[in-house]
TrEMBL record:
Pfam families: TraI_2_C (PF07515). Residues 48-170 form the Putative conjugal transfer nickase/helicase TraI C-terminal domain. It comes from the Bacteria. This is Putative conjugal transfer nickase/helicase TraI C-terminal domain-containing protein.
Length: 181
């Protein structure tokens, strides 16, 4: 009797993970949409301002965007939100790189497109001189500096509950005037 060698069993691939499970055993997770979901996935120019405010409010609520801190780009001044410009718009543009393509077509920086769209919403106060940008004075223990940005007309556009004003920041126009006796 001649015994022919049987072929060796097929090599099983090295396992680097758990064994496969039946489909019924695999848990399925459904996630809710993020707070800062954009209004339109194409993010057309008309929606940049609205999407920015949605992102900003969601970021403040979730604490991804800090407020009233030395490095913060959102502060509470004069009972409302003060948005440091252009820094807050630059951060939004960095987190939304799809705006860059439109910016190149229009020969602008991405943050400028967002800032202009925000201005068109008319959600900010104008200075007594009719300007969009306010100047705030920051008085720290060692030095003072200035911040420039937008004051919102409605603090609830950014805050769910309006925090106290940042004690080290004041509007430059109001800080320069002496209180009348």
């Amino acid at each position: 009797m001649i015994i022919s060698p049987s072929p060796p069993p097929p090599k099983s691939p090295a396992r680097l993970s758990q064994p496969k499970q039946a489909a019924a055993d695999i848990p399925v997770f459904v996630t809710a949409p993020a707070i800062d979901t954009v209004v339109n996935s194409t993010d057309s120019a008309a929606n940049h301002g609205t999407n920015f405010l949605t992102w900003l409010k969601g970021g403040v609520i979730s604490h991804r965007i800090i407020i009233n801190d030395a490095k913060a780009r959102v502060h509470t001044v004069d009972g409302t939100a003060f948005l440091v410009s252009p820094d807050i718009f630059k951060r939004y543009a960095l987190e939304h790189p799809e705006i860059e393509r439109e910016a190149k077509e229009r020969d602008l920086e991405a943050w400028q497109i967002v800032q202009r769209a925000f201005e068109k919403l008319k959600k900010h106060r104008k200075t007594p001189a009719g300007l969009n940008i306010w100047t705030c004075l920051v008085k720290g223990p060692r030095k003072s500096k200035q911040l420039r940005g937008y004051l919102l007309t409605e603090p609830t556009d950014v805050f769910s509950e309006v925090p106290y004003d940042n004690p080290v920041i004041s509007l430059a126009d109001l800080a320069d005037k002496e209180p009348s006796e």
